[in-house]
Amino acid sequence: MAKYLLLKHYRGAPAPVNDVPMEKWTPEEISAHMKYMSDFAARLEQTGEFVDAQALAAEGSWVRFDGEGRPPVTDGPFAETKDLIAGWMVIDVDSHERAIELAGELSAAPGAGGKPIHEWLEVRPFYTASPTVTE
To answer: Can you give the pLDDT at residue 81?
Structure first.
C-alpha cells in the first residue's frame, strides 16, 4: 500500500470544465458538493483506502525563517493572485493507477447546476526513504 495526497486547488490549477466559482453556487449546490465528498470518503473508508481529508480556509500566510528572532510573515505583494488549496484527501492504495482512478472520480464532484466540476486534482505520493542495502 502507498499513501497519496490528493490536493484540491481552488486557484492556481488549470481551469475546470464547470468553471463557476463556489461563491456563486446556490446553497443546494454547495450541499450537493459536500455530500458527494462525504459519500466518496465513506466509500473509501469501507475499502480501507481512506486516511483523512480536510477542507481549508481561504486565509493563510507564507512564513519563512530569516535569522534569529521571529520569522517574518509575508502574504504578497499580490494576494489576489496567489494559489488557493481548497482541501486535501490522503488515500492509501495499492498502486499509482488506483490513486489516479480515485482522483478522477473525486474530480467529478458536482458544482454549479449540479454538473460535475471536472476539476484538476494534484496527485502526490508520500515520500518514502529508499531501502537500505546491506550485504
So the answer is: 55
Q: What domains lie within the chain, and their CATH numbers?
A: 2-125 (3.30.70.1060)
Using CA atoms, how far apart are residues 14 and 18, in angstroms rounded to an integer? 12
Quick one: cell of 37?
465528498
Q: Which three-class secondary structure state does DSSP give residue 44?
A: helix
Instruction: Report the side by side order of strands in the sheet with 84-93.
Output: 50-55, 84-93, 2-11, 121-125
Q: Coil, helix or strand for 111?
A: coil
On whether the CB atoms of residues 123 and 100 are closer than 8 A, the answer is yes
Which pTM does this prediction carry? 0.82
Q: pLDDT band at 75, cuts 50/70/90? A: low
User: At residue 76, does pLDDT exceed 60?
Assistant: no
- 91 CB-near residues (< 8 Å, 6+ apart): 3, 4, 6, 44, 49, 50, 51, 99, 102
Mean pLDDT of 4-19: 84
Instruction: Centre a 10 Å sphere on the Cβ of residue 93 and count the other Cβ atoms it contains.
Output: 20
